[in-house]
Amino acid sequence: MTNNDCWVNIPENSDFSIHNIPFGIFSDASDTKRVGVAIGDHLVDLATAAQLGLFDHLAIDKTVFTAEFLNAFIALGKQKTTAVREIVQQELLNESSVLKGNGVVAQKDATMHLPVFIRDYTDFYSSIEHATNVGTMFRDPEKALMPNWKHLPVGYHGRASSITVSGHDVHRPMGQTMPPNAEKPVYGPSKRVDFELEMGFIIGKNTGLGETLTTAIAEDYIFGKVLLNDWSARDVQKWEYVPLGPFLAKSFASHISPWVVTMEALTPFNVQGPKQEPEVLPYLKYAGAKNYDIHLQVAIQPENSKETVVCNSNFKYMYWNMAQQLTHHTMNGCNINVGDMMASGTISGKSEDSYGSMLELAWAGSKPLKMNDGSERTFINDNDTVIIRGYSEKDDIRIGFGEVRAKILPAKQ
Fold first, then answer.
1. Tens-of-pLDDT digits for all 413 residues of the chain?
2. Which of 19, 42, 57, 130 does the annotation list as catalytic?
3. What's the 3-state SS for the chain?
4. Residue at which a domain ends, from 85, 113, 141
5. Could you tell me if 163 and 285 lie in one domain?
């Protein structure tokens, strides 16, 4: 099976190869939201595919494909969602497919929407490189990591209502900060808006209150992954986070990519994670390769200028993997629901050009980054667009996520 076997043209190095088939929610001229899958520069309307009878033997209610979110589709379970993905895949390889001339839409003619209704959102802090960099900046470099960091996946419960999809611009947040050497705080626009390069995973199966998972089965509860820009207002955060952690500095906006790439599509890119020392507690031990080799890139595009790539990182660097994160999330009996999103935390690599935030790349403002237009950045300026891209590639298989982009507009004062 190759891209050349597909009757829809797939450009070279397309994120949306025949091996991918990610799910999303789109609308076109009819303004009706419905479920689609991406293929090359096009998408397949699954509502149309269902009307054509392609999924009749699966006994799926056709209204699932005309829902405003993927939640009902995901809730069908992996046996059926995987079957739908494989049917579409085979139809795209079938020159006699009933889909030819029916339900194939150019992505440029479609509007993408938030793919899932996210009832709950948890953000982890699982990159040892990122945690070490931040600890080195703000604490004793010899004690950069807090005592608990290597014993459990640190996380906090975030704000789900302000998660939006790529392309929706956001205003610079207002907030309370404590300027250096000031005697009292001030109120005004954040001067240190930052991106955070992250990935999110979407929960695909409910648990009940009191139920716990194990690392052996945790990935059965993960439907797929998205790119995530988890914006931060660093100056607001520095003042407000003690003693309870992130609040308004994080809740003003988070952006995700519109296509959810399934875990099945990502299976060829499993890799071993970093060695965990000291040895973790028994409930966090796992077998097999649980990390994923996903190349990640961040670019900043000043208004009316070309973009500048500021970061090249990889999801494989994560110290705590998704199975451990989800297992730990449920170890106290906390229930999870279809559509919930868990975020990785900022993904930084070992080299300076792989750091996943401006806080690290410009080292708290002490090392400005030069843009292609000659300007410099220590944090994100008004009217800058931040673009995050991601893909996995091995042999002749490429699986991509597209991009998540958003512009920081001037503050509403």
1. 899 999 999 999 999 999 999 999 999 988 899 999 999 999 999 999 999 999 999 999 999 999 999 999 999 999 999 999 999 999 999 999 999 989 999 999 999 999 999 999 999 999 999 999 999 998 888 889 999 999 999 999 999 999 999 999 999 999 999 999 999 999 999 999 999 999 999 999 999 999 999 999 999 999 999 999 999 999 999 999 999 999 999 999 999 999 999 999 999 999 999 999 999 999 999 999 999 999 999 999 999 999 999 999 999 999 999 999 999 999 999 999 999 999 999 999 999 999 999 999 999 999 999 999 999 999 999 999 999 999 999 998 999 999 999 999 999 98
2. 130
3. CCHHHCCCCCCCCCCECCCCCCEEEEECCCCCCEEEEEECCEEEEHHHHHHCCCCHHHCCCHHHHHCCCCHHHHCCCHHHHHHHHHHHHHHHHCCCCCCCCCCEEEHHHCEEECCCCCCCEEEECCCHHHHHHHHHHHCCHHHCCCCCCCCCCCEEECCCCCEEECCCCEECCEEEECCCCCCCCEEEECCCEECEEEEEEEECCCCCCCCCCCCCCHHHHEEEEEEEECCEEHHHHHHHCCCCCCCHHHHCCEEECCCEEEHHHHHHHEECCCCCCCCCCHHHCCCCCCEECCEEEEEEECCCCCCEEEEEEEHHHCCCCHHHHHHHHHCCCCCCCCCCEEECCCCCCCCHHHCCEHHHHCCCCCCCEECCCCCEECCCCCCCEEEEEEEEEECCEEEEEEEEEEEEECCCC
4. 113
5. yes
Is the domain of 257 the same as that of 371?
yes
Residues of the domain holding 65: 3-113
Q: Is 255 a catalytic residue?
A: no
The pTM score is: 0.97
Number of folded domains that form the chain = 2
